[in-house]
């Protein structure tokens, strides 16, 4: 395998990866734009940090609503996936994915709680 062979991998240049990268770029750009606008509106970085701290409860509620919507979508998708792939191996893979997702969300929220008390 040559040194540049990894550049020609088909997965690297397919449409799905390109769309995912584009959406990721758009989300990051939107987050940067919101932060820059917020800094300008409140008059500086210190004011922006204070505003974020003051509204942390609202953001927590927002995250809970997003988690609930994601869980509902996951439950719907899970039912369809179980019908399509009824094997025990597929069920075990799905269960491992679900456990990893729950652990990730709990770790994220626990780190936020420990950081901000």
Give a written overview of the molecule.
- The chain is an all-alpha fold.
- The protein contains four helices and no strands.
- The protein is extended and about 55 Å long.
- The model has no long low-confidence stretch (mean pLDDT 88).
Order of helices and strands: HHHH
How much of the polypeptide forms β-strand, as a percent range?
A: under 5%
Number of strands: 0
Major β-sheet annotation: none
User: Any idea what the shape is?
Assistant: extended
Helix coverage percent = over 70%
Unreliable runs? none
Give the distance, in angstroms, between the N- and C-terminal Cα atoms.
52 Å
Number of helix segments? 4
Q: Summarize model confidence as the mean pLDDT.
A: 88
Transmembrane segments: 57-77
Keywords: Membrane, Transmembrane, Transmembrane helix
List the helices and strands and how they pair.
Blueprint: H1 15-42, H2 45-54, H3 56-84, H4 88-116
Helix pairs in contact: 1-2
Transmembrane segments: 57-77
Keywords: Membrane, Transmembrane, Transmembrane helix
In brief:
With 117 residues, this protein is mainly alpha-helical. The chain contains 4 helices and no strands. It is extended and about 55 Å long.
Core attributes:
mainly alpha; 117 residues; membrane; transmembrane helix; transmembrane
């Amino acid at each position: 395998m040559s040194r540049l062979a990894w550049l020609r991998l088909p997965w690297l240049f397919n449409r799905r990866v390109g769309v995912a990268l584009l959406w990721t770029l758009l989300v990051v750009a939107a987050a940067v734009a919101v932060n820059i606008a917020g800094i300008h509106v409140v008059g500086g970085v210190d004011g922006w940090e204070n505003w974020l701290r003051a509204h942390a409860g609202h953001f927590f509620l927002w995250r809970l609503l997003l988690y609930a919507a994601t869980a509902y979508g996951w439950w719907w998708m899970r039912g369809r996936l179980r019908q399509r792939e009824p094997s025990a191996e597929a069920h075990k893979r799905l269960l491992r994915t679900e456990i990893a997702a729950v652990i990730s969300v709990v770790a994220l929220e626990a780190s936020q709680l420990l950081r901000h008390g």
